[in-house]
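Moderator note: this is an archived Q&A kept for reference. The question asked for a predicted structure of one protein chain; the sequence and the answer are reproduced below.
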Amino acid sequence: MWRVIHYTKYIIQNMLTKEDVKKVAALARLELSEEEVETLTPQLSNILGFIDQLKEVDTTNTEPTAQVTGLSDVWRADEYEDWDKSEVAEALTQAPAGLLGNQIKVKKVLED
């Protein structure tokens, strides 16, 4: 149920419930204690209230901005160089999990 509460001089129209916070935490795969849910519920509601205030700002004459620092792409092109077979063999001996054929074994990072 959505409620209207007053927080200092701001009105928060979309007060989150504890169940809302738990659902968002589950979607983000976060395990929250009841104490954390208790703390985060009003904090997240206040954040949404402040974001809601931005809807009131007139941006009619404001150009969309994606980058304000003036920096440009600083990535360099990849450079490929051949290794001789002895360099490759030495590098492969340093594989922490060993080899599977001519490929390096790595630890599993994704769950089934």
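Archived answer notes: The chain has a mean pLDDT of 82.
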